[in-house]
Amino acid sequence: MAEDSGTAGPGEAMPDLASLPGGAKAALEAVLMVIDEPATDVELGEALGLSPVRVRMLLRELQDEYDGRRTQVPRGFELRSIAGGWRIFSRSEFAPVVSRFVREGQTARLTQAALETLAVIAYRQPVARARISAIRGVNVDSVVRTLLQRGLIAEAGTHPETGAVLYRTTAYFLERLGIGNLSELPELAPHLPGLEHLGDFDDLVP
Q1: pLDDT in tens, 22-67
Q2: Cβ neighbours of residue 98 closer than 8 Å, sequence gap 6 or more
Q3: Using CA of residue 185, residue 189, residue 190, residue 191, what is the dihedral sign?
Q4: pTM of the model
Q5: Gene3D superfamilies, from UniProt (predicted)?
Q6: How far apart, in Å, do the first and last CA atoms of the chain sit?
Q7: Is the Cα dihedral 188, 135, 126, 82 positive or negative?
Q8: How far is CA 155 from CA 45, 59, 84, 147, in A?
Q9: Residues 102, 131: contact at Cβ < 8 Å?
Q10: What is the Cα Rg of the chain in Å?
């Protein structure tokens, strides 16, 4: 069956979803795996060149698959309709397992990108993702997600003017650093050269 056609971004050709492994449903699944916030069927449709009606049908099919409605064997994650959009989450039943892995079983060191992002949050909290990106000059979505998963940062409400989610460090962050409060944070420059002038960005973005 031919897939719906759509418009691509400037200079981009819309891929032929039917020619991809798994077709449109697999393409939709791939997008759902990387989004940080719930996406509406319209947004997903625009990204894939599919109609919202087609997207909703595929979303329901994926939801049924993850819930094991045919096989009676549910997956460890689920597709939820939340806040007007769709996003994949690990099932709440597995929260103890996931938490144990993230906080105790994951021994890999943080990357330089993660350390720099964590430093920006620590010294400028509460801070929005857009401001972190502006200071670092790169997209920080995946890094912020990693820091959230490891329990080093947490959401701290929203910006009163823009509505952007704000982030702060956690008690676990202080514990890992071996300090009692934020006033004991060490000088930044010796540890992360290049971020010693954070104050220059104070008025850049909210």
Answers
A1: 899 999 999 998 887 789 999 999 999 999 999 999 999 999 999 9
A2: 90
A3: positive
A4: 0.50
A5: Winged helix-like DNA-binding domain superfamily/Winged helix DNA-binding domain (1.10.10.10)
A6: 47
A7: negative
A8: 29, 28, 20, 11
A9: no
A10: 20
